[in-house]
Amino acid sequence: MGRIALGISYDGSAWLGWQTQPGGRTLQDTLEAALRRFLDAPAVPTVCAGRTDTGVHALQQIVHLDTEAVRRDESWVRALNSHLPPSISVQWARPVASDFHARFDARARTYLYVLRSAPVRSPALRGRVGWVHDVLDDAAMREAAGLLVGEHDFSAFRSSECQAASPVRTLQALDVVRQGEFLIFEFRANAFLHHMVRNLMGTLLMVGRGRRPASWAGEVLAGRDRRRAAPTFMPDGLYLAHVAYPQAPGLPLLAPADALRHHLGIALSPEKDGEYPGDSRS
User: Fold this and answer.
1) pTM for this structure?
2) pLDDT in tens, 266-277
3) Domains, the chain, ordered by start
């Protein structure tokens, strides 16, 4: 029995999130159905790095599975993609050690939120990019973001449906980068709570719109009360962009900025490219 890791990208707009559900229509259900057809097996359980929610996308979701089948790496990619819909694509496959775990071995996860600030919405970007018609104050949002970085109790940014045992998380970085009318928010943490990124986005946008001062973000965090924070923002522009596996060399992971450029054609500043903290290549 061998263990295989897959790198998967998907447009989550039409899916009910990653995790399997009785009625199907989830990314896990669809991938496992493709694996059953490819391997001619009754069941092929998978484990992912992060369970994305309804409408959330992935540039680099990492999945592992166990199988007795022996295939070339490129055969996994071509065969699985022939059984998957256009909104899901296996980017690569690699054999990994039998004790590699896509979820528990991850040191950090990075989400990118791609937001367009423009007077009129773009139908071509619907579902793929968040949108506001307001003019946003980038500097105020960066100031607010700085108050949220570190190890904190993130109860104020936690969904009522969150099943995590503890609300304490370490937000390692929260950056805001502008590229013309696009703003890219980069969230890196050891792990995330349910709806945490979208709730943080809602609060940052309240600041960016000038409805609250930057210091308000710190007050909301300290208050630990979800009712005091901003509403949950739309999922459209949210992407799982990178998972750091320092103990799993050989996975062809791209830095978040490189993954964003590869999949969406949006380039960030040069200092955001290349090697990435916690990457197994470093």
Assistant:
1) 0.93
2) 887 655 554 556
3) 2-105 (3.30.70.580), 108-238 (3.30.70.660)
